[in-house]
Each structure stands twice: as C-alpha cells, then as structure tokens.
Amino acid sequence: MTITVVTADLTRLALDAIVNAANPGLLGGGGVDGAIHRAAGPALLAACRALSEVTPGVRCPTGEARITPGFKLPARYVIHTVGPIWHGGHAGEAALLASCYRACIALAVAHDLQGIGFPAISCGVYGYPPEQAASVAITALRDVPAAHPALDVQLCCFDQRMAAIWQHALNQA
C-alpha cells in the first residue's frame, strides 16, 4: 500500500473511492460531508437513505463504514465513515478514529478498489486536533495487513497548513 499526502478538493479526485467524513445518519451535513453530497447529486442522499438504520437515525455508528456509488463524482464509490467527536482524548477517540480508517480500507479491499482518498476525519466540526488525528490515521493505515499491496491511499488535505501536518505525521511513521 502506498500512502501519499495531497492538497486538493476531495470531490475532484478520480480514484475508485473517496471517504466521506459523515454523520451517523448519513444524510449530509456541513464540511466534507456537505461538499460530497452536493458534488454527487441527490442520488447520493437517496442511496444513503436506502441503507438500513442499525438504531433509530443511525445508519453508520462511529468507527464503522458504509459504501455507496459515487454518482456524479469522479470517484466510483463513496465510503462513508463516522469519526469520533473530540472530548479531550480520554473517551476512546483514538481507537474509534483508527477504526474508521481500518473499516474504510476493509471495504476498499472487499470491493477490490485500487485507489482511495481520505479527508482528515473528525478534524472539522468534530474538533479532533489535526496533529493527533494524523498520527492515529497513519498508524492505523500502516497497521493494516498487506492484503491489498497495490492500494493507493491518498490523504487529501484542503490546504497547505493541513497537508504539512499530515506529511509530518507520515514522515515520522
């Protein structure tokens, strides 16, 4: 598996899949989630609504992932994952964040995908400190068994400041 940091608009990556930092209902929202839903078009919302709720209002619990088509996106699929809300780092956030990355990779492998783009999961409105999130993410990705050595993982950052944080974590791993 190759891991690279890119500065780009996640919704414009022409990979097999992009990851949506979603909310548990998978019904769109702000930030990355809203941008992906807007770029994919209304069919994405319909596909998300078609996914079964595991509890009322929850289609994807924190730390898990679900997959839908990408519709109008250049990516063939959207892998939706729900990151943890930051509560100071003592509420299991690191384990849940690592689980997000592992669950997304597992879906990529199960669907025989070659390329996947990740945003900085939980680093927006969920408040996870980017330096800590980057370290958790890189460690989780590096710990994934080499079941799919040809997988191209792109850590997509929206600006140079965030890209520098993620590149530093990648270089330290």
UniProtKB/TrEMBL annotation:
Transmembrane segments: none
Chain ranges of the Macro domain: 1-173
Gene3D superfamilies, A to Z: Leucine Aminopeptidase, subunit E, domain 1
Lineage of source species: Bacteria, Pseudomonadati, Pseudomonadota, Gammaproteobacteria, Lysobacterales
Protein name, UniProt field: O-acetyl-ADP-ribose deacetylase
SUPFAM superfamilies found in the cross-reference section: Macro domain-like
Cross-referenced InterPro entries: Macro_dom (IPR002589), Macro_dom-like (IPR043472)
Highest taxon, organism lineage: Bacteria
CDD domains attached to this UniProt entry: Macro_OAADPr_deacetylase
